[in-house]
Design brief:
2 copies of one chain form a homodimer.
Chain A lengths: L5 H4 L3 H14 L8 E2 L1 H7 L4 H14 L2 E4 L3 E4 L4 H25 L2 H19 L3 H18 L3 H13 L1 H6 L6 H17 L3 H25 L4
The structure holds a DNA duplex (30 and 30 nucleotides).
Chain lengths: 224, 224
Amino acid sequence: MKSDIDPLEQRSRSDQIAQTLEDQILTGRFAPGARLDEASLAEEHNVSRTPIREAFHRLAQSGLVVQQPRRGVFVRVSSPVEILEMFEVMAELEAACGRLAARRATDADIAELRQAEIECRAACDAGDIDLYYLKNGIFHHLLYAQSGNGYLEQEASRLHRRLKPYRRMQLFLRGRLQQSMDEHAAIVGAISAGDATQAAALLRDHVAVQGEKFHHVMSHLPKT
Amino acid sequence: MKSDIDPLEQRSRSDQIAQTLEDQILTGRFAPGARLDEASLAEEHNVSRTPIREAFHRLAQSGLVVQQPRRGVFVRVSSPVEILEMFEVMAELEAACGRLAARRATDADIAELRQAEIECRAACDAGDIDLYYLKNGIFHHLLYAQSGNGYLEQEASRLHRRLKPYRRMQLFLRGRLQQSMDEHAAIVGAISAGDATQAAALLRDHVAVQGEKFHHVMSHLPKT
DNA sequence: TTCATAGTTTTCGTATACAAGACGGTTGAC
DNA sequence: GTCAACCGTCTTGTATACGAAAACTATGAA
């Protein structure tokens, strides 16, 4: 079952560096548009330029940075439009997961999903936004897995990760947490009932709202 | 407008090699499971191992090959299950394109789509499978663009390309061409009518059928 | 005959070196 | 004074070299 993952267990240095850089970009250490310097990063990680370059390639492929020939690599400036587009696709992917999960999820799966939902609610009630954020991620990844489609799971996870920073900021909007919670409950209900259409629609809206909220956040931000 | 693309115009040698290798894999020069040897490929392209390695990274990220640390890179063996999964995702992505296009396509867009459909039919009537294959690709890419979502367009195109070899083989199944043609007409009709739900459903089925047909083809093949 | 272990060989991962292109500053001319 | 061209420096892209890890093979023992 996990034979696909096993070979990746032993990762090379460059892969580790790519992971680190990705985290640093997503958490904001490198601002959008900033240039990533091979030499200084090599020095910082105590490696030569080669692993850094390999890491850059990974990041470029995942879309986090852009490489300009003979110029260097820059943290991609995702325009609000692009981000909204990604949220729109995320909504469709999650809807697809829901549609399939409604047909394929076993009783054990649903119990697991319900448990995740409960833990989300607990975190919400405790006012622990970090914990909610974590549990919410688990909830959604469970859903991806329950689509029974490994490729879909992988793609959904990829985009989910990509949208991480933008999803987080809108958690702080007043009332969003409770609303999101209620949506989770409805989603679990639909899947549990085997209602594929309903599950898909609920999930599409659930994520689409995140895009809208992001729009709100953007409009409140000082314009650059 | 095309400032995003401009820098890529001047591509490095490694990018060209990656492109070449990708084509060669998709067209079957390298069989699934075959090992890609850095040294011999470097010699063949008259470059050192470095650009080859960079090309490998690109291919690995796009999922065409897998890199096993200290083992080498291998053309990914996509199991029938994986391919069916990809068709399922493709169906959802195209459905999403249709849903959005039904709301966003302009009259000019629809005229363009209808024109593409006519050219498909012409190729079909002429019995020119290669031409049909080409026109069919144009039809679908138009649809992706008309979703009005650049990210969705990009992702759909990526997966479309990935499934290229598997889609082609099922074109030869008896009766599939005519059936596919009728589906196209219905899809254009739904989008033209602005019926998002119908367009999405038609497209999902249209692509899902391809997955099923692939399944048929597989079952007729001598088992490896 | 079969299995295990040790040695050899291959090739991967990283380091370093070198070449070519791009950016910036300075200088000269109009 | 301003603009353009040229030169220097910096950074990327590619080549080459070296160390290490894994696979293969052969040999010996059970």
